[in-house]
Write a sequence for this structure.
């Protein structure tokens, strides 16, 4: 009987040890879901830059003019997608848009330094502006009623920025 009691005690001890270790075992918790991939986008702001007086048409007495305006919907430049991950400080691009007498953009010239650091931003600006169309710049001679459509240029400043990882492009 003593042997039987010793065996029972031995089995109880083994069971207690197994239960104790089982209580210490850690369960692998499921992995938390992967964070969502941050979608980085950009915006642009724009503004007209006042030209110097020497580069403007002179309206003579007896003449009137119609200022050109952008026709239809026009799109601002897009923040270059390949530069979003760089998290750059604001990039300012100033350009001169040269428009023919029929209102079509003939070229877009940089009015500041264009280098490897901002080339993608200038290219995005040029790509967007080459699609713009303007009403012609018109001068009318009141005495003769002759109307002339003339070429013109307009200077713009665009600011490319990211706020909280999201791009913003402003025309200033």
């Amino acid at each position: 009987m003593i042997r039987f009691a010793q065996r029972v005690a031995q089995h109880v001890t083994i069971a207690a040890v197994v239960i104790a270790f089982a209580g210490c075992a850690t369960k692998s918790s499921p992995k938390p879901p992967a964070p969502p991939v941050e979608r980085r986008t950009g915006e642009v702001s724009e503004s007209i830059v006042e030209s110097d007086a020497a580069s403007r048409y002179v309206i003579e007495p007896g003449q009137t003019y119609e200022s050109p305006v952008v026709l239809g919907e026009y799109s601002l430049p897009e923040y270059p997608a390949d530069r979003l991950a760089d998290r750059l400080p604001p990039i300012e691009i100033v350009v001169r848009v040269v428009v023919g007498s029929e209102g079509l953009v003939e070229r877009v010239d940089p009015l500041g330094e264009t280098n490897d650091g901002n080339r993608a931003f200038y290219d995005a600006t040029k790509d967007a502006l080459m699609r713009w169309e303007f009403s012609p710049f018109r001068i009318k001679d009141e005495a003769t009623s002759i109307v002339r459509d003339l070429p013109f240029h307009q200077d713009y400043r665009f600011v490319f920025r990211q706020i909280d990882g999201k791009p913003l492009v402003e025309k200033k």
Summary: The radius of gyration is 35 Å.
